[in-house]
Give the backbone structure.
Amino acid sequence: MAAHYDVLIVGGGIAGLSLASALAGKCSVALVEAEQELAYHTSSRSARQFIPSYGPPVVQELTVRTLELLAARDAELSEPILTPRSFMLIGAEEDVAAEASGLMRSITPAEALELCPALVPGTFRAAGLDEGSFGCNAPLLLADHRQRAETAGVDIVTGAKVHTAQRLGSGWQVGAGTEGFQAGVVVNAAGAWADELAVISGVEKLGLQPYRRTAAIAAVDHPLPEHSPMVAAADNSFYFRRDGDDVLISPSESEPSGPEDARPRPGDIERLVDRLNRETTLGITEVRRAWTGLRTEAADGVPVAGFDAEAPGFYWLAGQGGYGFQTSSAMAELAAAQILAGQAGAAAASGTAGPESRTAQALAATRWSVRR
């Protein structure tokens, strides 16, 4: 016998969990995750930085709204999700100018060296600073969403990979693991597997492309000061930030991949360590651990949130790229409003959504630029 729900969310990463907590108590919800634990893939491999100046305009808008929502939530928690941590771009003048946007302001190389003394003078010619950036306690945020969802009656099932899904009557019938589900709305929050879920469901895929992004925690001879900014090369060749007495480093690669449990490739981190030991005074001595996540993007690089054009009750919440955490609460707010209203673009009670809002249109699964 299949269990009946108003909404079935497929995917237990930050997208699915944030939507589950946004819908909790407003309708009946189940969330299914293929892995044995939630947030196993990209959501557990985040850089944990919210950067309001990062990404296209709609992403910046969603980031600002997410920061507003999480600041309000922090007021209720004993431990904060957000901690102020500025973000700094360095590089050639043309590269910094091309990447700097929104709330980022230009600073001199001398000012950049004051903010991050580990940088070597002469290795960059320009810099930009976003002082409205925050570090994110990702495990706490994920746990808070799960706790709020389950407390309000959301059923969460792990180890349940979707193997069948079909439209029947006015709803969907879905098989996941050994469980059966019936729901009026299926939410595709499957990350790198979002197109695979569409195919299983008989829905035209969007051509979402996963990209590799590797990072590592490394020990250093000279730890960064407590309030050091996160530093990124404007040509997207590396970033680093303080992680206690260690540093988090990444070669910032963006290479196409299939949906998989990605792993670092030999040489990627080692080459970055050599470079950072030449261009900084960090003195990296050891790589403690390394990982690779997948950042999944639509053709136009903008996240997707909206009902499918042809499949009634099939809602896309995917293609977040590298903006998943920093847009998550605003995306969930918009998605919950649309789902509860029963149609894409329906009016939301608050926030970024609206019946004809620019935000909803920019994220819609029906936009002409979304497919490859």
The two ends are 39 Å apart (CA to CA). The chain has nine helices and 20 strands. Residues 57-74 form the longest helix (18 residues). The longest strand covers residues 284-297.
